# Entry
Amino acid sequence: MSGLLTKSWFLAVLALVIMLGTQVGSYLLYRDKIFPADKDVLVIKREDPSPIGWNFSSDDLKRLKSELDKRMAKIAEREANFATYEARLQSDRIEIEEIKSEVERMRDTLLKDIVEVEAWEGKNLKTLADTYGNLDPEATVSIFKELDDATVAKILRFMKPATIGDILQEMAQQGGGNEAMIKRAAKLSNMLRLSRDDLQAKK
# Structure
């Protein structure tokens, strides 16, 4: 026996047996703590649930449907109002175009009448200028006293410069150099100048 204790293999086997014995003893000693026994658990088995049925006539769905119907009605009303407004706008646009066409037609007619009147007035003024130009300046000035400055200036425009000069001279000297007549002669002279400047600008 003492000889075996000197053998290394024997000692290794002995150490292994002691270690295994120690582990087995520990397992048996602490088995309940390491692997506690299952406790009784109360298990309640639920019966198979019945299928849930949806009730589409519920108060909530009815309220939602009512609100949706009201909104749809408002949208339809707005669309109808827009359609009415668009139709009225189109009608107003057509009426405006008709009025515009009528105004343009009246304008063209008026311009034509103005041109005809101006042509007639020009012809009439030329006749008067020829008539007054054949009178002596004193008689012409006497007639001009009864006419306004604008009319006199228009008649003078159709007269020869020499005739105009004689008439204005007579006007300034008449009544011994009457101040009012001198001012009128100067005013008529200035109106003629402005009128001729306008004619030159138009040319």
Summary: The chain has six helices and no strands. The chain has a mean pLDDT of 79. The helical segments are 8-34, 59-133, 137-144, 149-157, 161-177, 179-202. The first helix runs from residue 8 to 34.
